[in-house]
Amino acid sequence: MKYIPDMNLLRAYSDVTDRLPAPTLAVFEFDNKKLIYCGTKHSADVSFQLIDKCFNDYDIDCVVTEVHRNAEPVKIQTHTRSSNELTYSARLGYKRDIPVILADSSKYDWFTDLLKVDSNYLKPLQVFFMLDDAYTYKQHFKENYSIERALKNTIHKYWDDTLPPPMTREEFQEYFLEQFGIEITDDNISDIYITHPEWHCPDNNGSLLNKMWSDIGMISRDPYMVKCIFDAVNSHDCVLATFGAGHLNKQIRILEQAFGKPTFVDIKA
């Protein structure tokens, strides 16, 4: 029997009223198969402990995890236990010589998937990725990233000749002021995500970037995650899925329709 997801059951996080906590361990048992879905609390010690528990308690033969599909397995395999529980679960899978599926769409996928839906996403996407680039740089190197560098890097990564020209630096600043009422400069572009966390929280609160983040999940990320989970279940008997608990909340109706109601395991046991 081949299991096929009903993607019509995917919910936006804002539409989930019966939210499961982070972390949550949900075990689906069906047709002599198991799907152990570890809905993590990102970077928390309890999430690492929960992943260790899964490997100890179940005969896992495949790992599906929230890591970008274009990540380099060699780098993951050589990591020590880091602050990221998702790469940690992948590394344990590699260590045990079982298949590991990197099940998050890439940032390039986010860009192209949204543009396939609506070309009006182009300007918001440019803003989103320029801010993401500047924030990521500062997290790694502890120094500010200029608008010009964010612009050049975003164009290099995502633009091609089929797209209209991107906004110039001046157009970007004007558009940002118009949308957010904030004058963006070389001094603050790297800190916007920190000073305005509401722009990238799971709930859609109506802001431009928050809607962008929600749409990236619904259009690109979660559909790819679900596809990978079902591919794993169709090919293996005991699959460990490690994703942030928010994704479990969004996907659970799809999983229940295909595999039945899960058992929720006491994570303290």
Structure characterization notes:
The chain is of the alpha/beta class. The chain has two domains: 7-106 and 222-264, Protein-Tyrosine Phosphatase, Chain A, CATH 3.90.190; 108-217. Helix content is 49%, strand content 13%. It is built from ten helices and six strands; from the N terminus they run ββαβααβααααααβαβ. A six-stranded mixed sheet has the order 4-3-5-2-1-6, sandwiched between helices. β1 (24-30) and β2 form a beta hairpin. α1 runs parallel beside α3 (85-95) and α5 (122-141) packs across α6. The longest helix is centred in the last third of the chain and has 28 residues, at 208-235. The two termini are 33 Å apart. The model has no long low-confidence stretch (mean pLDDT 93).
Percent of sequence in beta strands: 5-15%
How many angstroms separate the termini?
A: 33 Å
Instruction: Indicate the percent of residues in helices.
Output: 40-55%
As for the number of domains, it is: 2
Q: Radius of gyration, Cα only, in angstroms?
A: 20 Å
Strand order of the largest sheet: 4-3-5-2-1-6
Give a summary of the structure in a few sentences.
With 269 residues, the protein is of the alpha/beta class. The chain folds into 2 domains: 7-106 and 222-264, Protein-Tyrosine Phosphatase, Chain A (Alpha-Beta Complex), CATH 3.90.190; 108-217. It is built from 10 helices and 6 strands; from the N terminus they run ββαβααβααααααβαβ.
List the helices and strands and how they pair.
Layout: E1 24-30, E2 33-40, H1 45-57, E3 62-68, H2 73-78, H3 85-95, E4 100-104, H4 107-117, H5 122-141, H6 147-158, H7 169-180, H8 192-195, H9 208-235, E5 238-244, H10 245-259, E6 263-264
Parallel strand pairs: 2-5, 3-4, 3-5
Antiparallel strand pairs: 1-2, 1-6
